[in-house]
Design a protein that fits this description.
Radius of gyration: 19 Å
Structural class: mainly alpha
Order of helices and strands: HHHHH
């Protein structure tokens, strides 16, 4: 139940961030070319939305099997060595993203103490940078999920084009 809810929340966040960024960009460009007046904060907000989308999108990629992986050498190994190196790669992915999440928390706390705000939106920068520890934590969790699944079934998630949910 929790996993399904998290899956839907993840997908909803990615779609929302992407949709908002697209709409804001379209409106800003349309206004600039029709009235000559732009929206001064549009570019900044669009950049932040795409950063958050990318952080959560990377976690989605791990969960669904569409995250970039280089396995051309691993596939040439024996099945037992393939399993070992796949397990190692997933473990290192979980560890690395957990470290990024922890460092991200430390950075967010530092940014909160500075009181710094974004140039155009005047939003607290710590809120904007919160995407790093949140997205990295989710990505680490997804690596662990895939690792547990791989250990049980010896299968990695595979993206099935044209289907919304491959399960």
């Amino acid at each position: 139940m929790f996993s399904r809810l998290l899956d839907h929340l993840e997908e909803w966040l990615i779609a929302t961030f992407m949709g908002l960024a697209t709409i804001i960009t379209f409106i800003a460009v349309a206004l600039r070319y029709t009235t000559g007046a732009g929206i001064p904060w549009a570019q900044e907000l669009t950049i932040y939305l795409f950063i958050w989308m990318a952080k959560f999108g990377a976690a989605y990629g791990v969960r669904t099997g569409i995250h970039v992986g280089v396995d051309v050498l691993v596939r040439k190994l024996s099945p037992s060595r393939q399993r070992f190196f796949t397990f190692l790669g997933l473990s290192l992915g979980a560890f690395f993203t957990a470290v990024v999440a922890l460092l991200g928390v430390k950075f967010v706390l530092f940014m909160r103490s500075t009181g710094q705000t974004s140039p155009d939106l005047d939003w607290p920068m710590w809120i904007i940078y919160l995407g790093v520890p949140l997205g990295s934590s989710l990505m680490s969790f997804r690596f662990i999920q895939v690792l547990v699944q791989f250990r049980r079934t010896n299968q990695l998630p595979m993206h099935h084009y044209g289907t919304e949910h491959p399960e």
